[in-house]
Structures are given as structure tokens and as C-alpha cells.
Sequence to fold (237 residues):
Amino acid sequence: MLETIDLQQVLVLDIETVSQKATYAELPAHLQQLWAHKVRNTLKEGETATDVYPNAGLHAEFGKIICLSVGVFHHRGGQTGFRIKSFAHADERELLIGFSDLLRSQPANLILCAHNGRNFDFPFICRRMLINSLPIPAQLDISGKKPWETNHLDTLELWRFGDFRSYISLNLLAAVLDIPTPKDDISGEDVYRVYHEENNLERIRVYCEKDVITTAQILRRLRGEPLIEPATISFAD
Fold:
């Protein structure tokens, strides 16, 4: 039962990903061919593999993680607070090492929570760990486990209530649950441009942290609990 989970044992996370190169032309020839082969059946009339290359960040084989933000709940003086830390770096391996070190300092049964985490965030992180020759942290390693044996929460799955045909975005779910979302700058569609053209990782970090806060607020609402007060949200260096 969701309401029986101790929120202080939950780590909420979100990742932002981009293509490994700024343009399709920068890819090595063999990867250009492999990308073209991967997207060949999804191209619209008149589109080329070059046109859709900005979407490469959605695929772990062609993308990379540039920001990974996490948040943890805490209880003080009868009030629930939330603390956020981000790993943002152009060097993905350094980012993943920092995140792995954090998980290594936590219990192996720590619960990870993300929106669409089972289908995107969790497997993407694991694949990029392996590509970077890093061991998969215990909290992410689901090898040999049944779905109900994994300590993973997915707010998208919780909202589905067993209806696996449906999909709902983080923004839409927040809207229908009447959760304020401080999306006053960029959107997910802007991340490629802001990173590769503007080289502004700081804007992406702030955007990623906002998604973590929104996911945490959705989890509270799904448990029938009041939202986290903005004054109790803090940020680690």
C-alpha cells in the first residue's frame, strides 16, 4: 500500500538527456548508419535521419545524461520537507560516478521514484552506466527480480491503476491534481537546443530540479497528503 511507505526511504529522481553529438554529421560514419537504420521506419514523409537526430537523446545508445537531480523527504517539527541535489556535468561518466557514490552511501532497499521511471529513467541510467564501464548500483539492479520485488515507484504507473494503454505527461498529471508547476523557463523540447547551442547547463539543471519537485508533489497527492510547502524545499550544493 502506497500510504504505508516511509517517505524518508524514498529518493525521487529525474534525468535530462541529449544526443551525444550536436549534429548528425559529427557522428562517426558507422553510428550515422546505425542511427539511420534505427529511425528508418518512424520517419515522416520528407524527413531524414539528420532531421530527427535531436531525438537521439531519448535512446541510451545514442544519447547521454547531462543532468540527474534527486530529492529526499525529511520530517522536522511535524512538517515534511524536501531536499534536492543535482549532478550536472558535460562529462557523463563523472556525473554517473557522483550519483553512484550517493546511492552507495544509502541502504540497498532505498526506494527510487520517478515519473515514467520504469520505462525511461531507470533503464536509461543502467544502460549508460554499463556503456561508461561502471557497475550498476544495488538500488537500480533488477536482474533476476520480479517486478514486485523491485524498490521502484513510478508515478505514471500509479496513475494508470492497471490501465497500461494510457500515458500521461508529468505536466498534465500535475495540472489535473491541481499542483502548481513553476515551469517558467524551458520545456523538455528545449533541452537539446539549450545544451548544444547555448551551452547553458545551469538552465537545464534548474528545469530538472523543478521536475523532481513536481514528481514529489504528485506522490504526496497520490497518498492523499498535503503538498510540500515551498518554504521547506532546500537545495544542496
